[in-house]
Amino acid sequence: MSGGKKIGPASTAILFLNLSMAKYLLVLPYFMVSEVGNSAWLVILAKGIAAIGLFLVIAALYKPYVGLGLGQLTRRALTGPVGSVLNVIIAGLMLVRGGVLFRILTEALQTLETDTVTIEYVGLFVLLPVLICAMKGFNANVNASILILPFTVLSVALISLVLIPHYNIDNLMPVLGMGEGKIIEQAFFRLGGTFELIYLLTLSRSMADYGTFKKGGLIGVGAIGFFSFLFTLIYCLSIPYPVSKNFFFPLYQLTRMIKAGSFLQRMEPTVIFVWTGVIICALSTLVISAAELLKNSVDIRQGGGFVPILVMMIFFIGVLPRSELDTYGIYRITVNISHYFYIGVIFLVLICARLRKVERGLTYETA
Amino acid sequence: MRLRKALAVVLLAAALGGCANSAEVNDKAYVIALGVDKGSNGLLKVTFMFAYPSGGGEEAGGEKIDEKDIVTVEAPSIYSAMRLLDTFKSKRIDTNHTKLVAFSQKLAESRGVFSQLTDLVNTRGFRPSIYVCVTQESPSKLFNSMEPKQDVFIEKFIEHLFSKIADSGTSRAYLYNNYFSAVEEAGSYIIPLVGVTDKENAGGAAAAPYQKPDDFTLNYTADQVPLHGDSVAALCGYAVFVDNKMVGSLGMMEGTVVKMLEKNRQVGQFCVLVPGKNTYANVNLQLTNAPIIRVKTGDAPEISLDISMWGEFTGIGGAFKNSGDYAEFVDYLNGAFSEKILELLEKTRTEYGADIFGFGDKAKINFLRYPEWEAYNWKEKYKNARFSVKVEVDMNDYGELRFSQKN
Questions:
Q1: Is the ipTM of this structure higher than 0.85?
Q2: Most buried one in A146, A168, B24, B174, CB count within 10 A?
Q3: What is the percentage of chain A residues whose pLDDT exceeds 70?
Q4: pLDDT at residue number B214
Q5: Number of separate helices (H) and strands (E) present in chain A
Q6: Which residues contact A19 (CB under 8 A, 6 or more apart)?
Q7: Which residue of chain B is at minimal alpha-carbon distance from A162?
Q8: CATH number of the domain that residue B390 is part of
Q9: Which CATH superfamily, name and number, covers A9-355?
């Protein structure tokens, strides 16, 4: 799992991008537009700046514990049982996130006229690579991500260019959208990227040193902030408000807008396949992180045994029927509390670790 | 070694795809055009025109395919009509190649088309870039009347016919653009209007009499196209929608003005009656830049339009004998165009009371927040709008047609 070769700053950034891209580019524009109107791009820009600031603060506080990773630090800073419970809760929230990503993927695949394909079929072909990738560990995941990432960036870049005739600057007006109050609330009181920070702290156990953590994190946060801002701006420019709040998958709608008969229209399924790859990588990263946290909660050395169970749990969360409290319903509930929960956990653990003088470099296994 | 393993995995993945969900072209029935009309008992009469699967084609000697497969069913919605088709059509219905959706004028006037537009946008099978039109007759009559002479396939005929008005990304002929307007502009928008002339009477005694208009230029209204020929389906203006219901139509000349206001760079060909002379001058005009539209908001919004065009004469008959005539005519063009555009704007404001041109988009710039914009109530304020239009036509001297060669 997390053992073996340590990862460098570039790999850290790629893993970070991989995990966050699926959410930030696939559904964030929709959520933001629903909340703040056509000024969503402005909010994302502010959110990105706030996320960089937050990361720098946390990185400074976390400096001594980079070799420990969040899982071990939580247990040692908050005494055994409390830390274990906290780790399990965070792992659970990661699974919910995984479930919603899986659900998004299955719905996106259904846009390719796959009505006759059962969810189990999709599940098998999506979750099998997730399982293999997660079993192989971070390095395999980084390699897979390196293959997928250029296609992802290329697909967004091509869509941006092809849609230029649809850009209408008037769609950005009124420039403050639903008002500056909403913008400030969304940008600074509902901090973005807190989940990704939790993930980065968990991952830090596999990083070479603090420099890797800081550099990789900064590149990752900066890049995802930039891409999210750019993509949301394209969405707001191309589709007027309030129509824009009707489309759950902005990326899909934008690719559909490419003129019929155009060769580039064929990008529509290509884009979906590229994003399938992104989500598969993101899911396996989530599974590895959740397994790492669980491993640290129950005093075992190898977390690989958790992987198949976690993959199955992601599947079941992802296929909850619509008639009940479905995947999105659970996700919305967790999103509402997790903004404050994640940041609270990070600061609580860091403060307790400082007070209890947790030493760096002392791994859990040898403690 | 790793690369080989990776390649092996990729190749294996291709083999794992299977053919459980394979879809052969021969197993599908492709809908080329879809018509929606008012049915009985509150239902919709949905007409499907299918691609005819057999016959020749360009490769088979370029023979034209005349056969049409047109089916009409009554159902509560387009989607349920498609499901009904499944009960008697042997092949699976596929709408991925649908080119046109035609709404009947009857339906557009009585129930509107908004719910159908929404259905189409949200149904995966329909491309958002398919053409949308309103037909004066029933869609089945329109589809039957389409008889392409210069196109081998009916879908090409539709594509060519509509691409003439939909060659820019902002055109009103696309499904998405109409849907955006329907949601955004409080249900005020325009959709191309297609007329059908009775083939038996086309060009005959019962056809619309051809009268030489003494107006600035030929402005046929939607139901007055003097058609003389075999092709009986023709674009003839725009249907005006207010509150998502059709309330009237715009003629051909007005349609050209609509294009201008939509930043369409296409060349407009005008046949202008030269004042004081019993002759026409043929003029090609094109927008130099996108029109500059400014909106000052207030109780009575002030909307100003600056339109600059360049153009050339393609035929002047015996219109000009000296440079004075020429300059006078260019001045006349400037004034006449301003007047025509102003007339159209006033017509839409007073008759329909709606901003079908989307000036609201420009008015939004005056507001910082969306709730303020909503509270301003543009829809009501627009009824009091005042317009000022300035047109500048810059005629080129190419072709040396400034003066008549004879007379």
A1: no
A2: B174
A3: 87
A4: 43
A5: 14, 0
A6: A196, A199, A282, A285, A286
A7: B169
A8: 3.30.300.210
A9: Amino acid/polyamine transporter I (1.20.1740.10)
